[in-house]
Amino acid sequence: MSHMQQAVELAYQVIGSTSPNPAVGALLVKDGVEIGRGATQPPGQDHAEIVALKQASDQARGATLYTTLEPCCTWGRTPPCTQAIIAAGITEVHFAITDPNPSVSGNGLNELEAAGIQIIEEGSDGAEELYEAFAKHITTGTPFVTTKYAMTLDGKIATHTGDSKWVTGPDARKYVQKLRRVCDAILVGVNTTLRDDPYLTARTDDGSPLERQPLRVVLDSVCSTPLSSAMLDQPGSTLIATTAAAPAARILALEPTEAELVVLPSGTVRRVTQIAIMAHLGYWRVVHL
Fold it and tell me: What's the distance, Cα to Cα, between the start and end of the chain in Å?
């Protein structure tokens, strides 16, 4: 496996734990020997390149860095990675993807090149998929959406009585949990809440809830989510997106719960519009993650 492919594998291991930062993998190699490796840590902690540089310590001088994403050159919760790379004496940087963030895109590479570091673009299997969701949000302000539903061979999602447990098998349900672990939010309509009373949590293989939970989002135009809903007692946060059509009494009834309520535009159909909820979730991600 190439050094870059190893970096890609490192990045995939931390998807879901780094948001709002992209998941990055990095490898430091000197004289053909790996001297440091790292992946992006949770928000506010070290980026992948910094983890690798700390492992390598003084050995980093003269080494080659393999990173899945162009090193950042802006200040956020942490200092720019470009400055640390230059200070460490790295002589060559291989990258797989240019950062889609307009504030960084190409600027990080230019800064490294101006410092005398050789820059080499090196593609790798799976690298583009790592950043498709990040690229969507950073360039449009709206989320990257994955649609999941279970359907029988004859095109149904439940029996004629409304029973839908279980349409899928163990393998499919395991895959759903994998999806939940890498997503920032899970969105359902209020009818799913009323009929299935789901937990909407990310869980381990043995059914235990994970420490990090995606935001649970319910589209509920008239605020009919029951106070007894199972999701309201689960770890993590719940957002109920409603409209001006919701009776004030129902909104007040939900206030004692820990759910966050937001009143969004409904358009002519008296339902939360797709544009409104996507814009709000894009904003929520910036503010809360």
Answer: 34
Q: How far is CA 39 from the centre of its chain?
A: 15
* Phi/psi of residue 12, nearest 5 degrees: -65, -25
| Closest C-alpha to 21, from 37, 49, 50, 41 | 41
- Which residue blocks in the chain are alpha helix, DSSP H? 3-13, 48-56, 81-88, 107-114, 127-130, 132-140, 170-182, 190-196, 248-254, 274-288
Mean pLDDT, residues 79-98 taken together: 98
> From the candidates 9, 34, 49, 129, which is the catalytic residue?
49
Place of tokens 């935001």: 215
Structure tokens belonging to residue 247: 């009776």
The rounded distance, in Å, linking the Cα atoms of 272 and 268 is 10
Name, in order, each residue with C-beta under 8 angstroms of 186's C-beta and a sequence gap of 6 or more.
180, 200, 214, 215, 216, 217
Residue 163 pLDDT class (50, 70, 90 cuts): low
Mean of the per-residue pLDDT values for the chain?
Answer: 93
Distances (CA, A) of 142 to 24, 138, 139, 280: 21, 8, 8, 8
**Pairing of β 92-97 and β 64-69:** parallel
Contact between 56 and 85 under an 8 Å Cβ cutoff? The reply is: no
Q: Which alpha helices (H) appear in 20-98, and where do they start and end? A: 48-56, 81-88
Angstrom distance (rounded) from CA 199 to CA 189: 14
Cα–Cα dist 152/41, whole Å = 40
Give the closest residue to 186 by CA, choosing from 202, 204, 173. 202
9 is catalytic: no
Between CA 193 and CA 238 the distance in angstroms is 12
Q: What pTM did the predictor assign?
A: 0.89
